[in-house]
Amino acid sequence: ETGVTQSPTHLIKTRGQQVTLRCSSQSGHNTVSWYQQALGQGPQFIFQYYREEENGRGNFPPRFSGLQFPNYSSELNVNALELDDSALYLCASTYRKGSSYNEQFFGPGTRLTVL
Amino acid sequence: DAKTTQPPSMDCAEGRAANLPCNHSTISGNEYVYWYRQIHSQGPQYIIHGLKNNETNEMASLIITEDRKSSTLILPHATLRDTAVYYCIVRVEAAGNKLTFGGGTRVLVKP
Predict the structure, then answer these.
(1) Which residues contact A10 (CB under 8 A, 6 or more apart)?
(2) Residue A33 and residue B97: Cβ atoms within 8 Å?
(3) pLDDT tens digits, residue range B5-46?
(4) Minimal Cα distance from B42: which residue of A?
(5) Cα(B108)–Cα(A75) distance, integer angstroms
(6) What gap in Å lies between CA B92 and CA A94, rounded to an integer?
């Protein structure tokens, strides 16, 4: 158990729909990252949030967006879902002090299936 | 972040040491070596990290060669619960949370 929780655990959507995934960071962590993991591949970095602002982004289109709230919970929103968006979505939290980051703690993930 | 190369899979006998190699020949002087593992249907789990000195914690040991172009993760007494995909990642510690995962090594611990 890492103290990072995600909801829902599983989700089925159809192409073109929108989805919101949620993450609750470990207590005391002020930075959250989101990753997409396609079947059989390693996780791919989507973006990172620090102090409620996006602070780094991977190679994902703007229809992937996020929010971080004052209580360090966060959301990942995906608009106009495509079949290739089917994946395990992971959030990871850590504590950042200045330019130093501690190790990340991952949640169990949300399995999204797009039909 | 520097690219890493790991064998796609390896088997290990329960109770024996598991030695997982990783090549990172283009590593820069300020890049750390991190190891994570992912047990089936779970999120990745941090194991250990180091810069140039060997490191040990309750989970594993990390041996980094003197030229830092390769490293080995050692699980001293593998158990069935160590069956997982192990990822070797190199990154600048101050580069934020971004971890660049490769394919990893799928480790199967056999009784």
Answers:
(1) A110, A111, A113
(2) yes
(3) 999 999 999 999 999 999 999 998 888 999 999 998 889 999
(4) A108
(5) 35
(6) 15
